[in-house]
C-alpha cells in the first residue's frame, strides 16, 4: 500500500512539474513565514500586553465583587 501511495504521489508531482530540489526552498520559505508570524505576535503582545492585563483584572474584579 505504501509503495502505491509513493508511486501516485510521484506521478502527481511529475504532472504538476514539481521536483524534489524545491523541498529545501519550500522549507526555508515556511520557516521565514513562521518567524514573521512569531515576530508580529510578540510585537502585538508587547504593545497590547498591559491593556489586556488591565481588561482581565477589571473582569476579574467585577466577577469577584458580584
DSSP, total strands: 0
Describe the global form.
Answer: elongated
Q: How large a portion of the residues is in β-strands, by DSSP E?
A: under 5%
Helicity range:
over 70%
Highlighted features:
66 residues; 0% strand; elongated
Structure, briefly:
This protein is mainly α and 66 residues long. The chain is 88% helix and 0% strand.
Description:
This protein has a domain at 23-66. 88% of the residues lie in helices and 0% in strands. The chain has two helices and no strands. The longest helix has 43 residues, at 23-65.
Architecture blueprint of SSEs:
Elements: H1 2-16, H2 23-65
Amino acid at each position: 500500500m505504501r509503495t502505491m501511495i509513493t508511486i501516485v504521489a510521484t506521478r502527481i508531482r511529475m504532472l504538476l512539474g514539481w521536483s524534489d530540489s524545491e523541498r529545501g526552498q519550500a522549507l526555508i520559505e515556511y520557516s521565514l513565514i513562521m518567524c514573521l508570524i512569531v515576530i508580529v505576535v510578540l510585537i502585538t503582545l508587547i504593545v497590547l500586553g498591559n491593556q489586556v492585563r488591565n481588561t482581565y483584572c477589571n473582569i476579574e474584579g467585577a466577577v469577584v465583587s458580584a
